[in-house]
Amino acid sequence: MGIINILEAQTANRIAAGEVVDRPASALKELLENALDAGATRISVEIKGGGRSFLRVTDNGGGIYRDDMPKALLRHATSKICDGADLQEIATYGFRGEALAAISSVSRTEIISRAREETVGTRLTADENGVVMVDTGCPEGTSVIVRDLFYNTPARQKFLKRDATEASACVAVASSAAISRPDVSFSVSVEGERRFYTAGDGKLLPAIYAVYGKAFATGLLPVDTTVESVRAFGFVTSPDQARGSRTMQFFFVNGRPVRSKTAMAALEEAFRSYLPHGKYPGAVLFIDMPLGLTDVNVHPAKLEIKFADERPVFSAVYYAVKNRLSDTGKANPEEAVAEVQTVPQTETRSAPITPPHARPASPLSMSERQAVLAANAMFAAAKAKETSAPSAPKEPRTFSAGIGEEDLAMEPLLRVAQPTEEERKAAEQPAEPQQLQLDERPYWKLLGEAYDAFLIVETEAEVLFIDKHAAHERILYEQLASRKEVHSQTLLSGIPITLLPGEVDLLLENAAYLAEFGFEIEPFGSDTLLVRAVPATLAGTKELKTLLETFASELIGGSRVSFAEKCDRALFTVACKAALKAGIPNDPAHNEWIVKRLLEDESLRFCPHGRPVLHRLPRRELEGYFDR
User: Which DSSP string corresponds to 342-380?
Assistant: First the structure.
C-alpha cells in the first residue's frame, strides 16, 4: 500500500503561501504588481490594522474578464506568460500566477472587477465557505480587498509585528512602486490618513519629493550614462548630503525594484574619494538593459536579480555617478573630504566629548612627590622662623584667580599670610613639619601617545598600551546604557532627522523607552523626527544628525530580538561613532580622563564589540628583554 498523498488544492495553496506572502507588505507588493501589469494609471491603496485586518488596492487598469475570474484564484494561472520560452524575457512584474491563489488561501478575499469591453462587473468572494461570484455594478478596473490575513494560520500571525510596523512596511512597498512608475498616480492611506500622493505625470524628481520628502529630494544630482547595452540613470545625493546608513539607496532594474549588491558596490565605489569613512550616499537609480541579460526568477518575492554579465552593470552605475561628481567641481578627493567634514551643524558645541573636569586629578608621580615633600620642609622652616622673630603686621597675600586643580597639591605654598592667634599659640609648641597628604591610589603616569591611537601609561609594575578609541567607546557605552544615572541635554534648537516611515513609527512608538536613555523626540511631519534632547554624554558630539540616523537604522533592523535588545545593540554603534577616533590628535586632558576611568573600573577591558581595550607589558618582562 502506497503512502504518498496528493494534497488537495487548498492545502497546497496554504503551504505555497508561505513562500509568496509572509506579511501584509508582501501581499500588497503582489497586488500592486498586478495593477501595474494591468496598465493602470491610477492606483489607490488603503491600509487598516497594519494590513492584516484590511487591505484594499484599487486601480483603473484593464480589469478581469468575467470568464477569467474563477481562474484568477488558481495556482500557476496567469495572463503574463504562455510557455517556458517567455521566461527568457519577462517584461511584466508578475509572471508566476501564484499571488492571488496564495493570498486568497490565507485570508478572506474579495475581488471586484470590470473589463473595458464589459458593461457589468463581477464580484468574487473567497473565504472558508468557498468561492462565490455574482454580477455587480462597478467602474472599469479592479479592486482587491484582503481581510483577516492569516486568520486560518495562527502560527503565521505570531510572527507579525505591531500594526504600525506592518503598516510602515506596506507604505515602504507602495513607495518603491510609486518611484518605479512615476507615470502612474499613487495614493496611499493608513487608517484613513493619506501618507503620500504622486501626480503620475512621468516626472521622477517630483515623485521622489512626494514619497521621500523635501529633505531627501532637495539637492539630488541627476546622472545618466550608457555602457554597452546598459543604461544607468536617476539621481544621487551630493557628498554633503551623505547619510550614516544605506537606507536611502534604491535600485530598479528594468523598472523592477531589486536589491543588487553589484549596483550598490558601484555606487559606493564612485563616492569613495568624496566621502569619509562611515558615510553612505543616497540614490534612486534605474538600470535599463536587454531583458534577456537578466534573470528575475531567483527569489520568491522577486527582490533579487541575476545578471548574465555584471561588468557592464557595474561600469554603467560607476561612471554615471563618477562623471557627475567630477562635474560638481570636487575633483580633488582631499578637498571633497574636508568639505564634507566641515559641514555646519545645528548643534553649537563642537568638542567630541566634554570630560567632567578640565584636567582630571591623577596620582602624583615620584618626582612630583619628592618636590612636594621638599616644598613642605621649606614651608615648615619658614613658618618656624616667622614665629620666632615677630615683625610688623603684613597685609595678607591673596590669590583670587588662576589656581587650577594642579595647584591644589601645592596649596601650602600659596597660603603665606599673617599668622592668626591660634597659629601663634601653636608655633610656641615644638614645631613639626607639616606634611601634605599624598594620594594613596596606585601610581600611574601617562607617558605619551603612539600614532595618535595608542596611549602609553606607566604604573609601578607594568606598562599599559591603551587603544583610545576602543576605551572611549566602552566608557561611552557604559554611560549611555546606565539609565539609572542618565542626564539629558536639551539642544538649543531641535535637530530634524528625515527617516523612512518605518523608522519614524518605530521610534515614536518607543519614545518613552528612548527617553530613559536620554533621547527626547517628537514627530515633525510624516517622515521626520525632531530631536529635542540627547544624552549629556553625546551633547558635544560632532555630526550628531548622522549619529542619530545610524541609531534609528540599527533599531529598525529585521532581527526578531526584543526592542530592548535592539536598543542595546544600537548603543554599540552610537558609542563607536561618538568615540575619539584613532589617528586624529585630541586634547591631552581627554587622554588622561580615559586612563583615569579605565584604572578606576576593572570591568572596562573590552569594547562593546568584543575587542580588547588595553595590552599589558610587565616591568619584569621588559627588564628581562634587556638583561637587567
Answer: T---SS----S---SSSS---PPPHHHHHHHHHHHHHHH
553 with 568: CB under 8 angstroms?
no
Q: Is the full-model pTM beyond 0.70?
A: no
Contacts 24+ apart (CB under 8 A), 520-527: 520/488, 520/490, 522/494, 524/494, 524/496, 525/213, 526/195, 526/196, 526/213, 526/501, 527/212, 527/213, 527/498, 527/499, 527/500, 527/501
Tens of pLDDT, residue by residue over 287-330, are 998 888 777 666 555 667 788 888 899 999 999 998 888 765 33
CB 468 within 8 A of CB 323: no
Sign of CA dihedral 586, 587, 591, 597: negative
Distance CA 280, CA 381 (A): 68
Place 398 in a pLDDT band, splitting at 50, 70 and 90.
very low
- On whether the CB atoms of residues 314 and 322 are closer than 8 A, the answer is no
Q: Hey, is 45 helix, strand or coil? A: strand
396 and 429 Cβ atoms separated by less than 8 Å: no
**Rounded Cα gap, residues 539 and 299, in angstroms:** 45
Q: In b/e form, how buried is each residue of 460-483, taking b as 16+ CB within 10 angstroms?
A: eeebbebbbbbbbbbbbbbbbbee
- Backbone phi, psi, residue 610, to 5°: 95, 0
21 contacts 102 by C-beta, under 8 angstroms: yes
Buried b (16+ CB within 10 A) or exposed e, 511-534: eeebeebbbbbeebeebebbbebb
Give the Cα separation of 558 and 43 in Å (integer).
Answer: 28
- Cell representation of residue 441: 591610589
Residues 6+ apart with CB under 8 A from 625: none
Distance CA 338, CA 334 (A): 6
Hey, what amino acid is at 229? S
| 529: enclosing H helix or E strand | strand 528-535
Residues 6+ apart with CB under 8 A from 563: 510, 513, 555
The secondary structure element, H or E, covering residue 536 is none
**Hey, CA dihedral for 172, 105, 65, 86, is it positive or negative?**
positive
For cell 513609527, name the residue.
505
CA atoms within 13 A on the CB side of 77: 13
Helix (H/G/I), strand (E/B), else coil: 90? coil
The C-alpha atoms of residue 554 and residue 601 are separated, in whole angstroms, by 28
Each residue of 193-235: pLDDT tens digit? 999 999 999 999 999 999 998 889 988 999 999 998 999 999 9
Q: Identify any residues that bridge with 285 across adjacent strands, giving them in sequence order.
A: 234, 251
CB 218 within 8 A of CB 205: no
**Cα maximum dimension of the chain:** 126
Q: Which residue has the cell 547595452?
A: 229
Average pLDDT over the chain reads: 75
| Residues, the chain | 628
Using an 8 Å Cβ cutoff, are 542 and 352 in contact?
yes
- In sequence order, what are the beta bridge partners of 454? 450, 467
Contacts of 543 (CB under 8 A, 6+ apart): 343, 345, 577
Predicted confidence at residue 226, as pLDDT, reads 93
- Out of 143-147, 290-294, 425-429, 574-578, give the one with best mean pLDDT: 143-147
C-alpha 11/C-alpha 319 separation (Å) is: 51
Between the two ends of the chain, the Cα-to-Cα distance in Å is: 88
